[in-house]
């Protein structure tokens, strides 16, 4: 089954052609991150306009690179939630028109389900059930992947997402937007014990976490030093920050793993590219005797191949949509 897939939930416009869920025939991405960098974060209206400009050309390019014709497309999949509403709407409207014109089914895909599915593309042997740490610009959740279309959130952030926390900290460090990857680089070689930052806890909810206190602590450290005219070692600061994020996440993932008994752990989303989190998870899984699946860096960020992959499993489960499909700014992964 050949699926043409679209993703437009934030600042990446993407199209891909995926065969039978796990074989990526093409995957093309256009990012408007450069435009947002000027403002220090995503400007939703700019993102939406850039999606409108890019999506049609990307669809043609995905079909061309896949070496197929439009007549070969069996279904169209699209991210319909969650995301910036104007941005998601562009993908949903375009996908609807393509599916209507081709006379093929329309498959709505939850964005975070797509991130999880990126692991299926990279790892042919991975099948549910498993536990997935979903960490992106908008999401931080420990998800029990019971089946391809059956998810349960075991824990997650009560405020900022991990990616947001990386981006906001990076902005204060003058690293631009998106700042996760440059902050990750800056942390390399730094002393991760130089600064002690707090790990957020939520009373009576051991698997839930909070990043707002960490963000404030980093900002205060930088502002205090500025006021006193002191120089901070930014490599040490970045390393200590990254360590705190990792230590906020990984013990909770391992607790959730022990609760499910799966001993199968995957990671998903843009922050899954973080070298500290990847290394710490590898060590924790080795110690616990759990198997770990890490997506390749190219599949961590937003792309449409992951939407085509998840779209295939949604289709098999009978989850197609009518022409009344609408975009949603927020939606629980278990209901998507
Ligand atoms: O999954 P993604 O591309 O978009 C969303 O669905 O949100 O994730 C983007 C997020 C940004 O916050 C970016 O700074 C972060 O992923 N990110 C990283 C790294 N690479 C990207 N955060 C930490 N370390 C990285 N290496």
Q: What would your notes on this structure say?
A:
This protein is of the alpha/beta class. Helix content is 45%, strand content 19%. The protein contains eleven helices and ten strands. The protein has a five-stranded mixed sheet with strand order 3-2-1-4-5, with helices on both faces. Strands 8-7-6-9-10 form a five-stranded mixed sheet, sandwiched between helices. α2 (44-66) runs parallel beside α3 (85-102), α6 packs across α8 and α8 (234-260) packs parallel to α9. The longest helix has 27 residues, at 234-260. It is globular and about 65 Å long. The relative contact order is 0.19. Bound molecules: 5'-O-[(R)-(carboxyoxy)(hydroxy)phosphoryl]adenosine.
Overall number of strands? 10
Strand percent estimate: 15-25%
Query: Can you summarize the main beta sheet?
Result: 5 strands, mixed
Question: What is the chain-wise order of helices and strands?
Answer: EEEHHEHEHEEEHHHHEHEHH
Individual helix count: 11
Stretches with pLDDT under 50, minimum 5 residues: none
Distinct ligands: 5'-O-[(R)-(carboxyoxy)(hydroxy)phosphoryl]adenosine
Tell me, what's the shape?
globular
Computed over alpha carbons, the radius of gyration is 20 Å
> Helix content range of the residues, please?
40-55%
Averaged pLDDT: 97
Structural class: alpha/beta
What's the arrangement of strands in the largest beta sheet? 3-2-1-4-5
Head-to-tail CA distance between termini? 22 Å
């Amino acid at each position: 089954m050949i699926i043409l897939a679209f993703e437009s939930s934030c600042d990446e416009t993407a199209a891909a052609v995926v065969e039978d869920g796990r074989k990526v025939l093409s995957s093309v991405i256009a990012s408007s991150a450069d435009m947002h960098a000027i403002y220090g974060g995503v400007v939703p209206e700019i993102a939406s306009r850039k999606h409108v400009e890019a999506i049609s050309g990307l669809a043609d390019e995905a079909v061309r690179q896949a070496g197929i014709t439009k007549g070969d497309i069996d279904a169209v999949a699209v991210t319909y939630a969650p995301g910036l509403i104007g941005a998601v709407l562009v993908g949903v409207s375009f996908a609807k028109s393509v599916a209507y014109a081709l006379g093929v089914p329309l498959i709505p895909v939850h964005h975070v389900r797509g991130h999880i599915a990126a692991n299926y593309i990279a790892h042919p042997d991975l099948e549910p059930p498993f536990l997935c740490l979903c960490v992106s610009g908008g999401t931080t959740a420990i998800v029990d992947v019971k089946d391809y279309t059956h998810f349960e959130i075991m824990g997650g952030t009560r405020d900022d997402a991990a990616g947001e926390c990386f981006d906001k900290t990076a902005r204060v460090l003058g690293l631009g937007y998106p700042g996760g990857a440059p902050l990750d680089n800056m942390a390399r070689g730094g002393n991760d014990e130089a600064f002690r930052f707090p790990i957020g806890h939520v009373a009576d909810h051991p698997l839930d976490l909070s990043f707002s206190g960490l963000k404030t602590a980093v900002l205060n450290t930088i502002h205090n030093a500025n006021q006193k005219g002191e120089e901070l070692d930014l490599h040490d600061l970045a390393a200590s920050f990254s360590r705190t994020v990792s230590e906020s996440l990984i013990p909770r993932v391992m607790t959730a793993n022990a609760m499910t008994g799966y001993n199968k752990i995957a990671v998903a989303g843009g922050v899954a590219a973080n070298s500290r989190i990847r290394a710490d998870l590898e060590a924790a899984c080795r110690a616990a005797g759990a198997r770990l699946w890490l997506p390749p860096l190219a599949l961590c960020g937003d792309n449409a191949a992951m939407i085509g992959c998840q779209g295939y499993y949604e289709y098999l489960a009978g989850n197609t949509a009518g022409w009344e499909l609408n975009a949603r700014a927020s939606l629980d992964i278990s209901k998507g």
